[in-house]
Write a structure and sequence with these properties.
The chain is an alpha+beta fold and about 250 residues long. The chain is built from 3 helices and 13 strands; from the N terminus they run ααββββββαβββββββ. A 13-stranded antiparallel beta sheet has the order 6-5-4-3-2-1-13-12-11-10-9-8-7.
């Protein structure tokens, strides 16, 4: 029995070593994904299509983003949302509503609320887009997803105050874009799913063009599509954009 057990242990050890050599380092993979998505500055025009069991509506917005900490979004359509503006400054967020000419700070439990009735929360909007700043990563396998060979990595939060304790990503081996993502609570409950339906190439990098977000706990939702119509990397953005005064301009 002892010789058989040692044989199994040795076999498992060498098999594990071979698998570790076959898979790329999870941290390096995640960093490459981050590099694809981020830049010093960027300006983006997008559409958010919010789908429920009975209705569908489209929201058009333009966003100015500086680094990781500053973002300003103005909603352009429909008429009901036109003129609404949102400012993110590090870990703080404000929203301006033209209907009552008020600026409201989004904080505490309000961060978990839906943005414009979508499957995205304000907490999602506040999150540092550089996932390698928030998670440790391990490559656990490979799989073909929508005819694209992918690496599968699992992420574990490195701090206790992160919205999602763990994540699972399917990363396109060639384009280094996460084509699917699952986000989990600390207890292991699946909270949200993300599927990249289309990508496009901008300045020698691949970027998600059409993304479907799904809050799996919201049974009334059929998902929210986020479509990037235009994005400009390393754009010149005036500093006044990222001020509370700009909310009322």
């Amino acid at each position: 029995m002892k010789s058989i057990n040692w044989h199994i242990i040795i076999t498992l050890f060498f098999t594990t070593c071979l698998l570790a050599e076959a898979f790329p380092d999870g941290t390096e993979l995640l960093q490459k994904v981050d590099e694809n998505l981020t830049s010093e500055n960027r300006i983006m025009t997008s559409r958010m299509i919010v789908q429920t069991r009975r209705t569908q509506r489209e929201i058009v917005a333009k966003s100015w983003i500086h680094g990781m900490d500053q973002a300003f979004t103005e909603y352009l359509a429909p008429a009901r949302e036109q003129g609404t503006k949102m400012l993110k400054e590090k870990d703080r967020m404000w929203i301006y509503s033209p209907s009552n000419d008020r600026i409201i700070q989004i904080a505490g439990h309000m961060l978990r609320q839906s943005v414009m009735g979508s499957d995205l929360s304000y907490e999602d909007m506040m999150e540092d887009p550089v996932l390698s700043n928030l998670y440790s990563a391990v490559t656990v396998g490979e799989e073909t997803l929508r005819e694209r060979p992918c690496w599968i990595i699992e992420l574990t939060a490195t701090a206790s105050d992160i919205a999602y304790h763990s994540r699972k990503l399917w990363i396109d081996k060639e384009r280094l874009v996460a084509l699917r993502e699952e986000r989990f609570a600390r207890g292991g409950t699946l909270l949200k799913e993300t599927d990249v339906l289309d990508v496009f190439k901008v300045h020698n990098r691949w970027y998600p063009k059409d993304v479907l977000y799904k809050d799996v706990l919201n049974k009334n939702s059929k998902g929210t599509r986020f479509i990037v119509d235009e994005i400009i990397f390393d754009a010149d953005i005036p500093e006044y954009i990222f001020t509370k005064a700009a909310l009322r301009r």
